[in-house]
Amino acid sequence: MTVTKKDILKKLSECNTLGISQFLEKYGFQPPRGVFLIYQGQEYPARAIWGAAHTPPLDGTYDNARMYHGPGAFQNLDPAFYLTTKAEYLALKGESPAIQDLDDEGFGNEEPEYRRRMAGAYIRNPEVRTQVLRRANGKCEYGGCTPFKNLNGQIYLETHHVISLSEQGIDRLTNVIALCANHHREAHFGQDWQILQDKFLTIIASVD
């Protein structure tokens, strides 16, 4: 199903009516841990809004791992849909979280509830990842930086599909780049993600 701006606005309205807590409960999502959707000065749970905007599958579950793919998911519909972190949003408003909120003993949960969730994922060919990492030779293919080493003493790099599989991207060497963790997050959540996308494709074309 293709999500439209009208679909998103409908769920924003429903979220306003129900309140965030009831909206999350209705669609089976957890509270957002970092990224929020900001629209007309109000914050919303980004993944929940995006997932709820889809028609649920026959089993009634909302496969947000497959449906949601970063800031572009919203901004391609309308640049007014702005994704940010809670801290960034408060900073833009000239506010900051109170220190006592961080030290409050009532914050959090000593016995977190465990909940099994169903999620789907596109099947990736492991050989593509292997070949991309071999091509990178221990360096981030975008910044040329040397990533940290993991517990096994190996260079830690992540592979990124430049055109996401959910956007009909292909699982081939020509669409996958090796990135350090920082640049990988930027590719998904940075405000210049579209510029990075073009740069990544140029880099891959130059080495293949």
Automatic annotation (TrEMBL):
Coiled coil: none
InterPro entries cross-referenced by the UniProt entry: HNH, HNH_nuc, ScoMcrA_N
HNH nuclease domain: residues covered: 127-185
GO MF annotation terms: endonuclease activity; nucleic acid binding; zinc ion binding
Pfam family, any one: HNH
Database matches in SMART domains: HNHc
Record-given protein name: HNH nuclease domain-containing protein
Organism: Sphingomonas prati
